[in-house]
Design goal:
By secondary structure, the protein is α/β, with parallel strands linked by helices. The protein folds into two domains: 135 residues, ATPase, nucleotide binding domain (Nucleotidyltransferase, domain 5, 2-Layer Sandwich); 169 residues, ATPase, nucleotide binding domain (Nucleotidyltransferase, domain 5, 2-Layer Sandwich). It is 39% helix and 21% strand. The strands form three sheets. Strands 3-2-1-4-7 form a five-stranded mixed beta sheet. Strands 10-9-8-11-12 form a five-stranded mixed beta sheet, sandwiched between helices. The longest helix has 25 residues. The mean pLDDT is 94. It binds zinc ion.
């Protein structure tokens, strides 16, 4: 029964994950390697390993890949991947289909994560929701009336301050420039460079350029005023982005995932407070703002679900 397994991959700026997933959306086997400078070689090696060495791998009915970037799902092309530039313009679906001769599809990583949460995670009970990935950057995915919207959903690149700083995408004042881990770390470092006092200054023997968002959250919990300020400001901007989504599509839920969800007590709580001020009370009162339940596996599970769906069409097309 070939349709009982599929291979799902998640190609991020830091790591590439490839999993074998069964029809109950359980991850049977999982491999991970740093993305490096030759992501396609890494990807092929991981897929080879899963398909040849893991029981069930040879019977996989298809391969689904989630990619960090703007993806043309219908054409199977990665249009632009800011964190993995060598993939920009690559016909990834074609390359995989040619090598493995199997049903293949690609999708944006946050979209895949949203569908994963819908199928088997925190989104199961919601017909319509927005998922935000809060990490180095900010990604988004939208489920509407139980279906994944195959749109860009780049909520991290919607404007929260018209006069804000230049973003890597070319625009100004993007949500990502205020609320990502990169923004939080950058905010703390630049304040310390200007002389603001903080216990963070003693981190890493004074080399505070090595700070992580987790270090900043820990300092904030210890009461450090700078750490608290930086996280609250980032959270407020996130709240503006969330309020925009609530007013735009009145979702039943906003699901939050990624490393920054660990900073719930200050950062996310500031976001919720701000979103409540900026969205229609009638809409805000109905929305649930919750953490994801699948974490890093959401993208793979979502890709597996999409691949199983597409598998039917592939067989009919020969
Ligand atoms: Zn941007």
């Amino acid at each position: 029964m070939s349709e009982h397994y599929c291979i799902a991959g998640d190609i991020g700026g830091t790591n590439i994950r490839v999993s074998l997933v069964d029809a109950e959306y359980q991850i049977v086997s999982k491999l991970k390697e740093p993305t490096g400078t030759e992501p396609l070689s890494v990807l092929f090696r991981l897929i080879d390993s899963i398909s040849l060495n893991v029981p069930g791998g040879r019977q996989a009915c298809g391969i689904g890949l989630a990619v960090a970037g703007i993806v043309d799902t219908a054409a199977g092309v990665v249009l632009r991947s800011p964190n993995i530039p060598v993939l920009s313009g690559v016909h990834l679906q074609g390359a995989i289909a040619k090598r493995y001769g199997t049903c293949t599809l690609i999708e944006n990583d946050a979209n895949a994560a949203a569908f994963g949460e819908k199928i088997a995670g925190a989104g199961r009970d919601f017909g319509s929701f927005v998922l935000l990935t809060l990490g180095t950057g900010i990604g988004g995915g939208i489920v509407l009336n139980n279906r994944l919207l195959h749109v860009a959903a780049e909520i991290g690149h919607t404007t929260v301050n018209a006069a804000g700083p230049q973003c890597g995408c070319g625009s100004l004042g993007c949500l990502e420039s205020y609320s990502s881990a990169t923004a939080i770390i950058g905010g703390a470092i630049s304040a310390m460079e200007k002389g603001t006092a903080s216990i963070l200054k003693e981190s890493y023997n004074g080399n505070f350029y090595k700070l992580t968002a987790e270090d900043i959250y820990k300092a904030a919990l210890e009461g450090d005023p700078l750490a608290r300020l930086v996280l609250r400001e980032a959270g407020k901007a996130l709240g503006i982005g969330i309020a925009n989504m609530i007013n735009l599509m009145s979702p039943e839920a906003v699901i939050l995932t990624g490393g920054l969800v660990g900073a719930w007590k200050i950062y996310i709580e500031a976001a919720i407070a701000e979103a409540s001020k900026r969205s229609f009370a009638e809409l805000f009162s109905k929305v649930r703002i919750v953490p994801s339940s699948l974490g890093d596996d959401a993208g793979s599970i979502g890709m597996a679900a999409l691949t199983f769906e597409k598998g039917e069409g592939c067989r009919h097309n020969g």
